[in-house]
Every structure is written in structure tokens, then in C-alpha cells.
Design brief:
The chain has helices at about 20-40, 50-60, 65-85, 150-155, 175-190, 200-225, 240-255, 265-270, 290-315, 320-330, 335, 345-355; strands spanning about 105-110, 135-140, 145, 165-170, 230. With about 350 residues, it is mainly alpha-helical. Helix 2 crosses helix 6. The two termini are about 20 Å apart.
């Protein structure tokens, strides 16, 4: 077994419910609404050098393209075009895209394009009415503890460096990206809106939508012991750090008092995660290819550490996971490490690999 990937076991567990969760979710939802209203004003753009801008430009989307033609083009060319802009894909081991999503110059970022149409989407699934039902960008894994609410810091000229290096791997739904841009163009053209039509502006909107997705994924790291950190925004904002800290403290107490029966049950304590983001993200057949599979293996090793630490604390084991890990750790890590092009990501994989192995 050269790769690992977490999957739900299909069982439903009855876990305790936190009494203040509804109020916390309402505060975050209100902040999210104000966040989008504030940053959607004006015509903000990302640089033309942004890899997602370059990817969209390769598809040559315009209002005459037609949704079905674009869908077929993505099916035919997605992997090839992704490799041209150095996204991590079947034909390219990718590169570290600093300063493309997060404002810190030491927040290492991968854009990952799955091998196939991982959700089996058809053109009907990506109609104008359905295309925005799921995010275009989803988190495979993140080591960040920051909840981002100010995307203007990504666009200004100030150079920022975080106190520690973070790593985030983001899965790109190219079908949804290209079709969403096509519908966006046609809708604005029909409404006689002649600004904000460029890929540079549309990718800004995609990143705007991604920050809340990232913030949800960060919740898992708080459960693992990371300190809650919420970025100060420039708009009307209700601080929820106290409520969130109380929720995290409650989760930790529950996890240290009740025996967990599976990783699926562990995830039941994180009810706010997006369906296709985080540990259970759908990667299709990507695991079959070592050029791609290492990203999802890294995520699995990283997300498993806190779960198994809680199990160790309670004096229990997950026999299925432990058996998979014993098989996995028989493999020489060089087999995977040699597939990782970027030295920072190679070092991160090795550290996470050893951290779980030596726990």
C-alpha cells in the first residue's frame, strides 16, 4: 500500500451536540454575508501571473463558447493545460505557489488537479443553477490556524511573513471553474455590465469564496491543539473568538471522555465542514498515480495524528487504521519523497510521516 486516503465508513454515529453551536454558526454566517458584500464592491483583480488566471486563459472562454463545448474541452484538455501552468497534476509534479491565495510569504500553497472528473459530473450537474452549489476550490489539507477575513491583504504590496510556515493543498474543480466563468461572463454581458469581465477579476471572486472554505478546515487544527487565530477584517464584524474557543474546549473534553469507534465518528464532532473538503475529499482515481497520490497521503497522515492521539489518550486503538498504517510504513518513504518536486513540501511530508510514525 503506497498511498493512504481516508473514507467515511458509511455508519452514522450519535454524538453529543454542543448547545452553543447554532449561535456560533449564525455569527459566522452573518460575518460571511458582510465579508462578501464588502469585497464584492469595486473591481478588484489578482495579477495576470496567477496560475488560475493563466489556466482560464488557456481555455479561451467567451460568451460564444457554449457550455457543452466547454465541458467537453475540459474533459479533453484539463490535465494538459493544468500542467502548462505548473499545477500539481498527472503531467506535472507542480510547484509551490506562494502569494497566490494567502497573504503570508511563507504560506506554502499547492493547487492540485485530480486525474479525472472525480465526482462524475455531467453537463447537467453544472448547469447555471447548479454550478455554484459546491465550491470551486476545496481544501485537501492545511496546517494553518488562521481564519482569513481580509482578502485585500493578498492584493496589496506589503510583504508579510507569518510566525511559522503553513502548508495548504487546494483541490481545483476545473469543470466547475470553467463553466462558472462562462455563466458569469454571459450573465454580466446580458445585463450590460461591462466591468469585471476578465479572468483576473473572476479568480478574485473564486478566492473570495475560498476563504470561508479554508476557515472551516482550520477548525480541525484547533481540535488538534492549535491556538484560535481570527484575522481582523476591515468591515462590520462580530468577533466570535470567545464562542469558538468555548466550542473547541467542549470538543476536546468530549473526545477525552468518550471512546471513539472510528475516524468517521471523530469527524461527526466537526459538523460545519464542507461536504467535499478536508479529510473525506473526493479525489477520484488520483491515488492510482504516485505523482498525485502523495498529496492525499500527506493529508491522511496529517489528519490522522490528532485522532490517534485522542485514541492513545483513552487507551484504545483503531484496528483498521493501525493495520493500514503498519502496511504503509513498511514502504521505504523515498518511494514517495522522490515524487515531490518542491523541497519545502518534500520536507513537510517527511516530517508528518515521522511525526505519526513515532507518536
Amino acid at each position: 500500500m503506497s498511498q493512504l486516503k481516508l473514507k467515511p465508513n458509511g455508519l452514522q454515529y450519535s454524538v453529543p451536540q454542543y448547545g452553543g453551536l447554532g449561535n456560533l454558526q449564525r455569527i459566522i454566517a452573518r460575518n460571511k454575508e458582510n465579508y462578501k458584500k464588502y469585497f464584492q464592491l469595486g473591481n478588484r483583480v489578482v495579477p495576470s501571473q496567477h496560475p488560475l488566471v493563466q489556466l482560464l486563459q488557456h481555455f479561451s472562454v467567451d460568451i460564444t463558447s457554449g457550455s457543452e463545448s466547454l465541458f467537453n474541452l475540459v474533459e479533453l484538455k484539463a490535465r494538459q493545460l493544468a500542467s502548462l501552468v505548473n499545477l500539481t497534476s498527472l503531467y506535472n509534479k507542480g510547484k509551490d505557489h506562494l502569494d497566490t491565495v494567502f497573504p503570508e510569504s511563507n504560506h506554502h500553497t499547492l493547487f492540485v488537479v485530480p486525474f479525472d472528473n472525480e465526482l462524475g459530473l455531467t453537463i447537467d450537474d453544472l448547469s447555471r443553477e447548479k454550478v455554484f452549489e459546491q465550491p470551486i476550490l476545496s481544501t485537501i489539507f492545511t496546517s494553518s490556524n488562521v481564519q482569513y477575513w481580509d482578502i485585500s491583504k493578498l492584493l496589496d504590496s506589503e510583504i508579510r511573513k507569518g510566525e511559522e510556515e503553513f502548508y495548504t493543498a487546494i483541490q481545483v474543480d476545473i469543470h466547475r471553474l470553467v463553466l462558472a466563468y462562462y455563466y458569469y461572463l454571459t450573465d454580466r454581458t446580458l445585463a450590460n455590465i461591462n466591468v469585471g469581465l476578465t479572468p483576473q477579476h473572476f479568480i478574485f471572486l473564486v478566492l473570495l469564496d475560498y476563504y470561508p472554505v479554508h476557515n472551516e478546515s482550520v477548525m480541525l487544527n484547533y481540535t488538534a491543539g492549535d491556538k484560535v487565530f481570527i484575522q481582523d477584517p476591515p468591515f462590520a464584524f462580530t468577533d466570535y473568538s470567545v464562542e469558538l474557543t468555548k466550542f473547541v474546549t467542549w470538543k476536546k473534553k468530549q473526545l477525552m471522555s468518550d471512546r471513539l469507534r472510528s475516524f468517521t465518528e471523530y469527524m461527526e464532532y466537526h459538523p460545519t465542514l464542507y461536504k467535499n473538503s478536508g479529510p473525506f475529499i473526493n479525489c477520484g482515481k488520483s491515488q492510482m498515480f504516485i505523482q498525485l497520490g502523495w498529496v492525499y497521503t500527506l493529508a491522511t497522515l496529517y489528519w490522522l495524528k490528532p485522532y490517534l492521539s485522542y485514541m492513545d489518550y483513552m487507551g484504545y486503538q483503531d484496528p483498521i487504521v493501525e493495520a493500514q498504517l503498519r502496511t504503509f510504513y513498511k514502504l521505504n518513504p523515498a518511494f514517495i519523497l522522490n515524487q515531490i518536486k518542491d523541497p519545502y513540501w518534500r520536507n513537510k511530508f517527511h516530517n508528518v510521516y515521522l511525526d505519526l510514525k513515532n507518536r
